[in-house]
Amino acid sequence: MQREMPMHGEVQKVKAAPSELVNMCDDELDAVRLCIQLSKFTHDYVGKQLSIDKGYMSRLLQGNAGALMQKRVALMRLCGTYAPVQFECAELGLVPVPRDEYERLVSAAAELDAVKKSRQSKDIAA
Fold it and tell me: Which contacts qualify for 68-75: CB closer than 8 Å, 24 or more apart?
């Protein structure tokens, strides 16, 4: 049996899907379909990469099979977008923020607090 060789190259960074497209999703299955569509991979290719049988993959995408829970992270990494997570966050009133951006926000908030405390101590001294 001949196996496919993995492609060598840079690993694709997982990024946000356009929010206007995520907002058009009615359910998580729509978000999974969007994730795949944005990758421009075929359903067959995605199924093979995730070790999902072609028939089962077809039933999954039609909503006639079980959930894709065990393979969701692998799906998002493969497709390069976290549309399913964005959909869930939107349903819960949350906004997903990448770790590096979150750390910058926390650092900026800490700097702002330090500036405010410095000004308050100067106002008290005056």
Answer: 68/32, 72/32, 74/49, 74/50, 75/32, 75/35, 75/36, 75/46, 75/50
Which comes out higher in pLDDT, residue 36 or 118? 36
Domain 14-95 has CATH 1.10.260: yes
Residues 6+ apart with CB under 8 A from 89: 95, 96
How far, CA to CA in Å, does 73 sit from each of 39, 60, 100, 118, 125?
14, 16, 19, 44, 54
* pTM beyond 0.85, yes or no: no
Domain borders along the chain are 14-95, 96-126
